[in-house]
Design goal:
It is a single chain. The protein is α/β, with parallel strands linked by helices. The chain has one domain: Rossmann fold. Helices cover 41% and strands 21% of the residues. The protein contains 6 helices and 6 strands. Strands 2-1-3-4-5-6 form a 6-stranded mixed sheet, with helices on both faces.
């Protein structure tokens, strides 16, 4: 899986995700630091990437636009460092692999993860 890591997360996530067999790019290596969320989403969609973020705006954009992609993984925790979240995220990626490839919003917390299929609707 190709994962685009948003600016609000550490570039250290690249090595962690690559260690688990994923391709990972941090936005700071490919785009402007001040890029809008819409620009990040457009780039991810055009390049077949899943967006990894801590920003709630990505899920809101998916809901508002009824878009069917790109898939987004939101980390909903206070401690965003890979040393703390690595195994929670890796487990969520394995559990939601098919859904992420098809189009999904995955919310990862310490105690659980939730999967919503895209496009988002109020019935989910």
């Amino acid at each position: 899986m190709k994962i685009l890591i948003d600016m609000n997360l550490s570039p250290d996530w690249c090595a962690v995700l690559e260690r688990h067999g994923h391709q990972a790019l941090h936005w700071s290596r490919i785009g402007k630091p001040g890029a809008t969320d819409a620009e990040v989403m457009a780039w991810a969609r055009e390049n077949g990437c899943v967006v990894l973020t801590h920003d709630l705006d990505f899920g809101a954009m998916l809901a508002a636009t009824q878009a069917d992609g790109p898939s987004v993984i939101q980390l909903r925790v206070a401690d965003l460092w890979p040393q703390f979240m690595e195994w929670f995220l890796v487990a969520a990626l394995k559990d939601a692999e098919r859904e992420l490839e098809a189009g999904a919003l995955v919310v990862v917390e310490v105690s659980r993860s939730r999967i919503r299929i895209l496009p988002l609707s109020r019935k989910q």
